[in-house]
Model the fold of this input.
Amino acid sequence: MKKNKLTQIWLDKAEEDLLYAKIALKETKIYGLLCFHCQQATEKLLKFYLTMAGIKFRKTHILPELLILCIKADENFNQFKESVLILDKYYIEPRYSESLEVYSKKEAQQAIRFVEEIKKFIFRKLK
Done:
């Protein structure tokens, strides 16, 4: 597997979202938006992996759908099913005023941890 311009863009954008989440955890209490950025980082990391593996995917923001494609390439991605289901709910809910959901610091920390675990796993796979 070889990096190209598109894979580098996915990786760079994922790392921006993760960095923003980490800064937000230290500097704010806006945990919903932080969780959204964790969802975004995960989405871009999964797309980075799929692109590196040469696996085509449709335009989507649905993490479980992307994870299924990753699992088809490597069944070890199964370990992230629960994490991805949790992160997936952060795509819409935290950003719209109709949502009454309040996110905690604990959820925010967990979201960051999930992203970091997925990132480490992908990097080990691509070595």
About this structure: Helices lie at 5-27, 31-52, 63-73, 81-88, 105-126.
